[in-house]
Design brief:
The chain is α/β, with parallel strands linked by helices and about 325 residues long. It has helices at about 10-15, 65-70, 85-100, 140-155, 175-180, 210-220, 225-240, 275-290, 295-310, 320-325; strands at about 20-25, 30-40, 50-60, 75-85, 100-110, 115-120, 125-135, 160-165, 190, 205, 245, 255, 260-265.
């Protein structure tokens, strides 16, 4: 199988079209907090490392990180999801406002905390522990109704709709159905999935499982390109979607739709942190497709974006200039 490629002139043309393209992101909004310190000894109280505090970093996570990535690439972004009434919600709103992301679609649910992941890591980026603040029940009642109303309103004029599903409550069958019904004709719907919701994604343009998720959904092992092809076909049938992109870490990606299959080799880079890389992939895919790229072209651009972001600490963004540099343009 010949690896999918993108002509340099085409890449430059497509990325030039990113500016101002309207994209709607719907999904699980999170805050990622990193407490960084130095480990020099084991606690006398328990067999655990003692971390001496050095610094703290706060990043947008989940659907908020997807929206941030889209904005960094030049898109005009609206975000719909759930936040609580806590400090994490305020920090999310502040950072999204600084990134020029429209947050009118955020619905406040006072009964649950804003999803927040607190990681304690060493100065060498080794994770010691993680604390999750969350209530992950599916949105229901008035909260689900408000999300649906915002999605319906904001879908008009969006040139791509992206569903970022982390199983934290914002993505329900009703929300997916509303997004599919409200979109303009020809607008692609891209889903970053969780397998527990696989039956909800029927009718989506593209679903992007990682290889573990694809294996779980299809009960097929993925070690070779032939196995990736078989799993992609099975996943498309199970999800009833038009196309699937399986992300395979150091093995790159596998793209499959009704007419063709192709591999996309990974970009060789030193990996610092893979957290948030999937958010960058789906953001780049959605924006490229909204700008007129084919599925294959969008996947190649997303592969380069992933190669850039894994070299950064924590959930991060990629700019158009970085993307062009990766493509040697």
């Amino acid at each position: 199988m010949t690896p999918l490629e993108l002509a340099p002139g085409r890449a430059s043309d497509l990325t030039a079209r990113f500016q101002g393209v309207r994209v709607l992101v719907v999904g699980d909004v999170m805050l990622d907090r990193f407490i960084v310190g130095q480990v020099t000894r084991i606690s006398p109280e328990a067999p655990v490392p003692v971390v001496r505090f050095q610094s703290e970093h706060v990043r947008l996570g989940g659907a908020a990180n997807v929206a941030h990535n889209l904005a960094a690439l030049g898109a005009r972004v609206s975000l719909a999801g759930i936040v609580g009434t806590d400090a994490a919600a305020s920090r999310i709103r502040e950072q999204l406002a600084a990134a020029h992301v429209d947050v009118d679609g955020l619905v406040v649910d006072a009964s649950r905390p804003t999803t927040e992941k607190v990681r304690v890591v060493t100065e060498r980026n080794q994770q010691v522990t993680r604390i999750d603040y969350e209530a992950d029940a599916d949105a229901a009642g008035d909260v689900e109704r408000q999300i649906a109303e915002r999605v319906q309103r904001q879908a008009a004029g969006a040139r791509a709709i992206l569903l970022s599903d982390y199983l934290k409550g914002a993505i329900t069958r009703r929300i997916v159905e509303v997004a599919l019904a409200a979109k303009d004709p020809g607008t692609p719907v891209i889903v970053d999935p969780k397998i527990a919701h696989l039956a909800c994604y029927a009718g989506a343009t593209l679903v992007t499982p990682n290889h573990h998720e694809a294996e779980a959904a299809t009960h097929l092992r993925i070690r070779t390109d032939d196995e990736a092809r078989a799993a992609a076909h099975a996943f498309r049938r199970a999800a009833r979607c038009e196309a699937v992109l399986i992300t395979r870490g150091e093995h790159g990606m596998w793209l499959s739709d009704a007419t063709a299959d192709g591999s996309i080799p990974a970009i060789a880079r030193e990996v610092a942190d893979v957290s948030g890389a999937g958010d960058t992939v789906v953001a780049t895919l959605a924006l490229a497709m909204a700008a007129g790229a084919s599925l294959a072209e969008a996947a190649v651009l997303a592969n380069h974006a992933a190669g850039i972001v894994v070299g950064k600490f924590g959930p991060s963004t990629v700019t158009r200039d970085e993307l062009l540099a990766s493509l040697h343009l």
